[in-house]
Specification:
12 helices; mainly alpha
């Protein structure tokens, strides 16, 4: 009878936890997201603050300001440097769009003529159908999408001002957390909810942060590999495409192969053997990194079967969009941690009784 009750309690706990995680991510997390970011910034900079204040005897406030200032300067410099290269390549791409459209038109002509010959219909029939649909799409973009973008330009400007305000809130909060870290920690530990919250947060810090850190490192490595490889084939947009492939590769349902394999096949058809070889080398290098380097970086800290991680990422994407690829696994970790803890407590009570 006790076993049945415990099982029922576990089922109820599981459903309540799932519902709680969903509502927490959907409604509560957006409200506290800036402060979560502030906490992570403070957590990253805290060793530097302690070194400056304890070893070099700097005042705590000055240590926090210096650490935050250096960190912010490095981030701004990195974004400016990468953004400068990115914008230059983007300008070249935009300038060359007419050329690429002309090349694309020629390719479409060849493809449409081939379809006409295969189906034995009058030459130009398929191209005519394509042009009709293409013209309809252009009209739709001109009449609907462009006016919508223009109408929202004021909202976009207001949003940018709002983002600047949020950034200031994040920086000020991170500064306060670093300045009075001991007081906040003492206050948190005295809370009646400390043990339960600490159980989940410690598990997240061990597994969730390991997962996020690993994905960021992998995306960085893959971006560099792709950029170097594309520079070898003298691609003008090496950085843009390299970063795009790295982001694409982070999606389990897609992967870098969805870009690199078709690209290499097209290069082979164009008799560009060198480019095809470089592109396939990039692909196999990324595969090697995902198969062998990722487990070394991640280790066994996640503690979740890969198929369950994949399922959680898919569900997270469906529920929360792009951020769901991170929130999905984190939610799964929270659910598993809480259920295991409840299971242990129920088993302990049963043993005592």
């Amino acid at each position: 009878m006790i076993h049945i009750n415990n099982k029922t309690k576990l089922i109820i706990t599981m459903f309540l936890t799932i519902i709680g995680v969903y509502f927490g991510f959907q409604y509560i997390l957006p409200l506290f997201a800036p402060f979560v970011i502030s906490y992570f910034i403070a957590w990253i900079l805290m060793p530097i603050v302690k070194f400056l204040s304890e070893k070099l005897k700097f005042p705590r406030t000055i240590s926090a300001i210096l650490s935050l200032g250096v960190f912010g300067s490095l981030i701004i410099w990195a974004l400016f440097y990468i953004g400068n290269i990115f914008i230059k390549q983007l300008i070249i791409l935009l300038q060359n769009i007419p050329i690429y459209l002309s090349i694309l038109s020629g390719k479409i002509d060849s493809l449409c003529n081939a379809c006409d010959n295969i189906f034995g219909i009058k030459l130009g029939t398929v191209r005519g159908v394509f042009d009709d649909h293409f013209e309809t799409m252009i009209v739709m973009v001109r009449n609907n999408i462009i006016p919508s973008i223009t109408a929202r330009s004021l909202n976009i400007a207001i949003s940018i001002i709002g983002v600047i305000g949020i950034i200031l809130i994040i920086l000020v909060t991170a500064l306060l957390l670093m300045k009075d870290e001991a007081a906040y920690k003492k206050s948190f530990k005295s809370s009646v909810f400390y043990q339960d919250i600490h159980l989940v947060t410690s598990k997240l810090s061990e597994t969730g942060l390991a997962y996020i850190r690993t994905q960021i490192i992998l995306m960085g490595i893959i971006s560099v590999i792709c950029t170097i490889g594309l520079l070898m084939i003298k691609n003008k947009y090496a950085m843009i495409i390299g970063i795009s492939i790295a982001l694409f590769d982070a999606f389990p349902m897609l992967g870098s192969g969805a870009i690199l394999i078709p690209w290499s096949i097209i290069s082979l058809f164009e008799q560009d053997i060198y480019s095809a070889a470089v592109l396939m080398t990039i692909y196999f290098t990324i595969m090697f990194i995902r198969q062998f380097v990722e487990p070394k970086l991640l280790g066994n800290r996640i503690g979740i079967k890969p198929v369950y991680t994949l399922m959680s990422m898919y569900v997270g994407f469906k529920l929360f969009g792009i951020l769901g690829f991170i929130l999905g696994p984190m939610g799964l970790i929270i659910i598993i941690t809480i259920i295991k803890e409840i299971e242990i407590r129920l088993a302990y009570r049963e043993e005592v009784n």
